[in-house]
Specification:
about 100 residues, two-stranded antiparallel sheet, 4 helices
Length: about 100
Amino acid sequence: MPGPAAVPTAGWEVAETKEMEQVIRLYGKTYHFWQVDRGDKLPLGGPELMGSFTSKEQLPEGLLAERDARYRISSEQKKEKRGYIEEPEVQTDADQAWKN
């Protein structure tokens, strides 16, 4: 995720990586109240249950590189910094949206 312009990159990455220790247990599903990627300046509309990719196989080819270029980030660097975070065991029925 791109950091706020007023926060130094190094500081943002420390905070973001620390947050990932908790977020990894959400199975990629959470309610969003503010769709910042759409450019909303204020929280508009109702809450939306959003999901994210929980395995490499779900990610369309080229999408990660496109995201990295768009936000000027490196997924590889983030992966290295988060390497100490243990991946939880994914329950067999956690990704039914991808299986049906």
